[in-house]
Amino acid sequence: MSHNHEAIIKWVETQMPKEESLYDLAELFRIFGDTTRIRILYALSKNELCVCAVAELLNMQHSAISHQLRVLKQARLVNCRREGKTVYYSLADSHVGTIISQGMEHISE
């Protein structure tokens, strides 16, 4: 192994996140690995929506959408707000929208 090769390996080692952070990153991408959740996130990247609207848009049962929204909320990918009896969902922050848009850009190339 050349000296330069060893130096590169040592430098990359210093840049590697802790195992726990890499585990958390893998878990985040696991959440993105479900088509229904991706469809929900994509819809929410366009506009804030209530559960009924998401269910209608995706032609799915209210309970199935609620379950997936709960998963997305626990993963801190969506936020919700209550207005009377209606709960509205939106993306948690611009990072989530960026992940969706860059993923779409990547698969379109």
What would your notes on this structure say?
By secondary structure, the chain is of the alpha+beta class. The chain has two domains: 31 residues, no CATH class; 74 residues, Arc Repressor Mutant, subunit A (Orthogonal Bundle). It is 68% helix and 13% strand. It has a three-stranded antiparallel β-sheet. Strand 2 and strand 3 form a beta hairpin.
Features:
109 residues, alpha+beta, 2 domains, 3 strands, elongated
H/E element string?
A: HHHEHHEEH
Task: Kindly state the number of beta strands.
Answer: 3
**Residue-averaged pLDDT:** 94
CATH class of the largest domain: Mainly Alpha
Structural class: alpha+beta
Low-confidence residue ranges: none
Q: CATH-wise, what's the superfamily of the largest domain? A: Winged helix-like DNA-binding domain superfamily/Winged helix DNA-binding domain
In DSSP terms (H or I, runs of 4 or more residues), the helix count works out at 6
Q: What is the fold named in CATH at topology level of the largest domain? A: Arc Repressor Mutant, subunit A
Beta-strand content bin: 5-15%
> Taking strands numbered 1, 2, ... along the chain, how are they ordered across the largest sheet?
1-3-2
Helix residue percentage = 55-70%
How many separate structural domains?
2
Radius of gyration: 19 Å
Cα distance, first to last residue?
37 Å
Morphology call:
elongated
The CATH architecture term of the largest domain is: Orthogonal Bundle
Summarize this, please?
This protein is α+β, with helices and mostly antiparallel strands and 109 residues long.
